[in-house]
Amino acid sequence: MTTYHQPVLLQESVNGLNIKPDGVYVDVTFGGGGHSREILKRLGPNGTLIAFDQDPDAQANIIQDPRFKFVDQNFKFMKNWVRLSGFKQVDGILADLGVSSHQFDSEQRGFSIRFDAALDMRMDQQRKKTAADIINEYDEKQLTNVLRHYGEVENAFKVARTIIARRPLYTSGELMNAIEPFCQKGKEHKFHAQVFQALRIEVNEELEVLKDFLQQANDILKQDGRLSVISYHSLEDRLVKDFMKTGNFEGEPQKDFFGNLLRPLAPLQSKPIIPSEEEIEKNTRARSAKLRVATKL
């Protein structure tokens, strides 16, 4: 479990759920099972935990416990599967977004800039579209939009035009060589990471799935239920923050006739919880993590 993925903000995120011994909880990003195991520690014999993960490799970490149910699906299907499991509402939902350590460290998955691997980046290997398909088939406008909106890449238009001029490109090494002229000296890693992030988000439709998930979480949480979400980049965190504060993704407060704020959730903190220096020292991938917790009104 620890080699698959070291859970980030473990105690803080599970504490945020305010576990009831006989409650029903959902872990939508099972991975190595670290957060799930901590939840199960706090559940009583009548509690229930439903966990989701679309990565086939995560199934090797399935927990043998009568209180635990594993669903090998993307968490965009959370609401349906929770209902199929016999529950209309749940007491808490946890999400640890982003790519697991296992996926980053698997050369053949194409997530990491450390390997010259095939441009894949699919979290669900059953999906058809890969990062190579985006690089080699998108037109200039489409590729520019992906780089600009999902990677916040400067000169996205010029980068897209250069990629198109150099294609076909099938490996991460070929892609990094093609965009090398746009790297600032000493900041090559950051630029490559932005481009790879943009492609990964597009391949997996991550932001649309996140929006869908947050709306479903609101639908199935009981009153006073908790939503605990860990994000790793500003695009995710902005969606989570705005939805928790306002109930929409534009961050625009809605009020009733009397001026009372209309929102389904209430954040428990005004600012996100971030890892301690000690945790970051032990796990450098925790450095960009932000945890936000909200309660259902």
Task: Please state the CA-atom Rg, rounded to the nearest Å.
Answer: 20 Å
Distance between the termini: 35 Å
Q: What's the overall geometry? A: globular
Q: Give the CATH H-level superfamily of the largest domain.
A: Vaccinia Virus protein VP39
- Rounded mean pLDDT is 90
Counting copies of identical and different chains, the oligomeric state is: single chain
CATH architecture heading of the largest domain: 3-Layer(aba) Sandwich
Please tally the helical runs, counting DSSP H or I stretches of 4 or more residues.
Answer: 12
Instruction: Classify the fold: give the CATH topology of the largest domain.
Output: Rossmann fold
In N-to-C order, the SSE pattern is: HEHEEHEHHHHHHHEHEEEHE
For this structure, what is the CATH class of the largest domain? Answer: Alpha Beta
> What percentage of amino acids are in beta strands?
15-25%
What is the topology, as strand order, of the major beta sheet? 3-2-1-4-5-9-8
Q: Could you give a short account of the major beta sheet?
A: 7 strands, mixed
Please bin the fraction of helical residues: 25-40%
Low-confidence stretches: 100-105
Number of strands: 9
Counting structural domains, the number is: 2
Quickly give the structural class.
alpha/beta
Question: What can be said about this structure in brief?
Answer:
With 297 residues, the protein is of the alpha/beta class. Helices cover 39% and strands 15% of the residues.
